[in-house]
Amino acid sequence: MCRPVTAEPVRQEQRKKEPYLEVYRVNSSDTMEVTKTLNVLFPGTVVNEDGRSRRIPVMASKSEHEEVSRMIRKLEDRGAQRPRSSPSGRIPPP
Length: 94
Hints:
The chain is of the alpha+beta class and 94 residues long.
């Protein structure tokens, strides 16, 4: 008895590798620095920067997006921990 061969597992695997656009919002880090870092760490992905809206559009596969998302969270955590200077450049009294 012959069984039909299904290509569904192959199609699902191809969809996982297919690039798509995801836009990430950056709150506490410098968008340009995050973009530079992502471009170095993920050379196969397309990473752009929109500094005015503090967003970073990324074209990548599903697995790459998972890694990019983790890295942005790490960079955001570091940006949030960075001490802020006062506008005058002087340290306020305790």
